[in-house]
Design a protein that fits this description.
The complex is a heterodimer.
Chain A: H1 4-10, H2 25-42, E1 46-48, E2 53-55, H3 64-75, H4 81-88, H5 92-105, E3 112-116, E4 120-124, H6 131-145, H7 152-163, H8 173-178, H9 180-186, H10 191-212
Antiparallel strand pairs in A: 1-2, 3-4
Chain B: E1 2-7, E2 12-21, H1 23-38, E3 43-54, H2 56-71, E4 75-79, H3 83-92, E5 99-101, H4 104-111
Parallel strand pairs in B: 2-3, 3-4, 4-5
Antiparallel strand pairs in B: 1-2
Helix pairs in contact in B: 1-2
The chains are: A mainly alpha, B alpha/beta.
Chain lengths: 215, 112
């Protein structure tokens, strides 16, 4: 099975290979960092509570994106979940790049370079057969339409896809609206993923204050 | 951390958990709850009055057990949570997924 961060990043890859964050770029980047923390938690490298993120083992996982985040936490100060999300977000584009490389090394994507207006290099990541992305989308939709309790992986995937603006890539606004109760109930039943939501809300408030004054 | 399973009235099993439920304890906790669910009781109540701490990994073990219970048609509830554990359940949204009762009697009554 593809790990959480790779699956989240895979959802941003469009059919033509463009990597698109359909809404809320910074929300998506925070989600990508959060996915790394959740995955590191599942792998027993870190644990977290309402107060702090703690390193249990600094042994590399073998996944470059996860290991870059693990190294930053291991070498950094003692912080809570939300503070780590905010601190790591500036390196989230590297996390996405490393995740795309991991997906390519597994034969899921095929990186290719092209030129835009004959000058600017652009990199695309066409899906080789698209089955992994299709499977992730189907799992999300069937979980949302059913009434089972989701796996921890799918609960976090749904929650992070929502706050990262990725559900809009394959569900219409009216479908998301209709499913919002279920999304709120089962998405991100996890302390780390809830920390991502909280960090995104805080950032949105800060942006609103910057443009509108005190809110 | 340790967890013990006992039978209660009405075919309901009660899991009593003690201590700290962190990454190191989560596998044992999850295994015990999954085994209790596999025995197909009418319901499983996790009695948490002696559970002092739940981390993110511990919460995941709870979620896996609740999922197994629902899939197997077994009722699932937690009860008698200490305030710090209740806070984790509320912040994570876990209390929106499972029944959380104030004490064992209320949990057993809800499953009757």
């Amino acid at each position: 099975m593809i790990n959480l961060v790779d699956e989240l990043v895979l959802l941003t890859v469009e059919d033509d290979g463009a990597v698109a964050y359909t809404a809320g770029r910074s929300g998506f980047l925070m989600s990508a960092v959060g996915a790394c923390l959740v995955e590191l938690n599942e792998l027993g490298r870190i644990d977290a509570d309402l107060e702090a993120v703690r390193v249990l083992s600094a042994e590399p996982t073998g996944h470059p994106a996860l290991d870059s985040v693990l190294q930053a936490i291991e070498q950094g100060p003692a912080l809570g979940i939300k503070a780590w999300i905010r601190r790591l977000t500036p390196q989230a584009t590297d996390v996405v790049r490393l995740s795309l490389a991991a997906l390519a090394s597994r034969g899921i994507l095929q990186p290719s370079e092209s030129r835009f207006l004959w000058v600017l290099k652009t990199r695309r990541y066409p899906l080789l057969d698209g089955s992994e992305k299709k499977e992730a989308k189907l799992r999300i939709v069937s979980t949302l339409l059913g009434d089972d309790i989701p796996t921890p992986h799918d609960s976090v995937l749904i929650g992070l896809a929502r706050v990262g603006g990725l559900l809009e890539g394959f569900l219409s606004a009216s479908e998301i609206d209709r499913l919002s109760g279920r999304i709120n109930q089962i998405g991100s039943v996890d302390l780390i993923a809830k920390g991502v939501e909280s960090a995104i809300r805080e950032e949105q408030l800060e942006v609103a204050r910057t443009f509108l004054g005190p809110v | 951390m340790n967890v013990s399973i006992e039978s209660a009235e009405g075919g309901v099993s009660v899991a009593r958990s003690h201590g700290r439920l962190d990454f190191g304890a989560s596998a044992e906790f999850q295994k015990a709850l999954e085994a209790a669910v596999a025995a197909k009781p009418k319901g499983l109540v996790v009695e948490c009055s002696a559970l002092e701490y739940v981390s993110s990994a511990g919460l995941r073990a709870f979620l896996v057990a609740a999922r197994a219970a629902k899939a197997g048609g077994v009722g699932f509830a937690a009860c008698a949570l200490q305030p710090s554990v209740m806070e984790v359940f509320e912040v994570s949204g876990f209390s929106k997924i499972i029944d959380v009762k104030t004490d064992l009697a209320a949990a057993l009554a809800a499953m009757a």
